[in-house]
């Protein structure tokens, strides 16, 4: 006979003991963090994430994403004295582990929160490493000033003695060339061109040409990010012309850095400040029927995934659900495949391209988009150079102590670029582009530039 | 608008990949979507067809001969033995680094647990390790890799009655890698033949490994390692080690995460790429439009729903482990298309009390008609244009029969081919 059938206590289930004595226990007192418990519990230790980690494959000191994520999170819960392991700073934030996990464990969210905690609570704010990381993470600020004097900046940033000093005092590798600053930023070009009003006219004209209703609801808000604004402005211009040719009105709302380099360096307060501006301006537009479009896959990744995973900002979920990568959006809403099939490219983009899929495009399921789309395009060839990480991971490869590892990770990609037919590279990510150029000497283009060459007369 | 194709395959395991490949070979425009990376990197990389009968008889010598005697509900009976053969031919052609296609008979492969497993196809890297080969064998384990205790594995194989002498030795992997180094770390080091420090000198990793093993040899003709010998260059690494040691070198397939599984995944994705298949991984299919026919499905990315539409669909999302079949206290279900999954009403009838008993849940999955279309509770097709393949199917216990890969390849092949023919 079971205990239930022979009660020998005076516990009376008819009168539940939820009286005034009852005090709910707050398991995680004073915490407004996201609850990572369900994610940690979903991990069943298959270690598939570890097989995807480009750092663990070359670095003997790096314990891998399974440790950085669910295991470290558990250690923190059970031991009050536990401090975040400093190896979290060796994670390059490629986020490949997210795409790997068959159980949907939010690994990069765990890494980002652990790294944020490490930096804010354990890192010496006067250390060279902190100062260096903060400068690298706030690329937008440096770029903003440099863009005021682009010629001087281009000279100064690659001036040998200055770079030697930067390496010795700040730990910024002198092996790399700084990206060139454009003489005119994207936003300066956009304003000079007449901004939204001009875009509206261009879109209307295109709709007429295409036989679409003039008032068709086609409008997008462009998140150009820092790099298209200050450096590769041709990518931003290609986006605008391409979208207008499909009849979309483009707006370029006020925006700051997406936060990608800040997440990677654990500077979550900086990232939040920028995210608040971005979400606020995108949110207004999304409410008015615009979709948010990014040409940099790390920017779209930040708006789609990292923002809602890390910050609780009004409107953030809706912005995330309405953000798309620039080519992806056209694939969904236009018959892009057919248009590409009928098109032909000649001129300076009629090339064989060695294409590398950035890790952050991989995480959005977009790693094969460019190769598959351009399969049918006459006049060009696009060859995938394999599924390895480029190794630079934003600011990671700029750090003096990480440079060698970064190049080791990139080795496989460099070899495949060497083996590929063409001598021009292609990728969506500005820092992958830096690494590709650095390792191969190739010029690197963006898929939007090729689409513009194919589809815009 | 939607992202369009003739055939849309949902699922990126062996069944989905084979389905996509066979549909593309039939001339269809094929798209494959998979929630996450292929589960193949959790598989041993061995391709079993049928090792044991449902009654537990075996190991079987000829899996094809045994198919006729399987119960009617078994997926092999649905597609027929000739389809199983055709499907394996497609596999052999797509993955030329695999062996075993020269005979109908099962090969016997040593496992990392020290058992002997009947399997129909195996990677070239495992071929020098066949248990039917009577050459004496040295197994070499790596101290840090607790999944492969070589002396223990050797003792087990000896007890299993293999026709050769087998010993196990354990070494420290050269280079003093961290204690929990990932399998990819070993593989990368050997792929690139990177230098490691041995007694203060820098030595290429392959030489250093051979130097560790050389003094342990006692005249054995072959040496087996856990499957860590490279990701991109396994053939070259085995050849180099074999030459330096003067023996044949083989790998023993390991548990997850598995390099042979990863290499198989790469080979199949290359074949899909060459066949012109579009592939997207990383996002789940969350919703379906349509009544008698599937009109379109929605792939979700962080809240954004991306419509994907096709003429024909293949469901290849896996079983309980792959989350293609789910269960809770109320019942058993198929979460993507909400297909009916036959199961006992009382959940205490789903399992036996003995751990290795003949559990009913092991055979749970969708039931289909002869055309592999999932059937609803009244035995009518759930959708005219949806076929199912692989472990999402019911009626067989792949773990007990050792039939998982074979069923995935055979039903994936059949579902893909029929979907492509219908889409014309």
TrEMBL record, chain A:
EC numbers on record: 1.1.5.3
Keyword Cell membrane included in the entry's annotation: no
EC category name: oxidoreductase
4Fe-4S ferredoxin-type domain mapped to chain residues: 80-113
Sequence ranges of Acidic residues compositional bias: 1-11
A Gene Ontology BP annotation from the UniProt entry: anaerobic respiration
Keywords: 4Fe-4S, Iron, Iron-sulfur, Metal-binding, Oxidoreductase, Repeat
Chain residue ranges for the region called Disordered: 1-25
GO cellular component: glycerol-3-phosphate dehydrogenase (FAD) complex; membrane
Top-level taxon: Archaea
Tagged with keyword Cell wall biogenesis/degradation: no
Pfam families: CCG, Fer4_8
A GO molecular-function descriptor: 4 iron, 4 sulfur cluster binding
PANTHER family given in the database record: ANAEROBIC GLYCEROL-3-PHOSPHATE DEHYDROGENASE SUBUNIT C (PTHR32479:SF19), GLYCOLATE OXIDASE IRON-SULFUR SUBUNIT (PTHR32479)
Name the record gives this protein: Anaerobic glycerol-3-phosphate dehydrogenase subunit C
Species per Swiss-Prot/TrEMBL record: Haloarcula salina
TrEMBL record, chain B:
GO CC terms of this entry: glycerol-3-phosphate dehydrogenase (FAD) complex
Record-listed E.C. numbers: 1.1.5.3
Entry annotated with the keyword RNA-binding: no
Keyword Glycosyltransferase found: no
Domain named FAD-dependent oxidoreductase 2 FAD-binding: residues: 6-407
Domain of life: Archaea
Record keywords: Flavoprotein, FMN, Oxidoreductase
Entry-linked SUPFAM superfamilies: FAD/NAD(P)-binding domain (SSF51905)
Enzyme class: oxidoreductase
UniProt GO MF annotations: glycerol-3-phosphate dehydrogenase (quinone) activity
Gene3D superfamilies: FAD/NAD(P)-binding domain (3.50.50.60)
InterPro entries: FAD-dep_OxRdtase_2_FAD-bd, FAD-oxidoreductase_2, FAD/NAD-bd_sf, G3P_DH_GlpB_su
Transmembrane segments: none
Record PANTHER family: ANAEROBIC GLYCEROL-3-PHOSPHATE DEHYDROGENASE SUBUNIT B (PTHR43400:SF11), FUMARATE REDUCTASE (PTHR43400)
Protein name (record): Glycerol-3-phosphate dehydrogenase subunit GlpB
Organism of this sequence: Haloarcula salina
Lineage, uppermost ranks: Archaea, Methanobacteriati, Methanobacteriota, Stenosarchaea group, Halobacteria
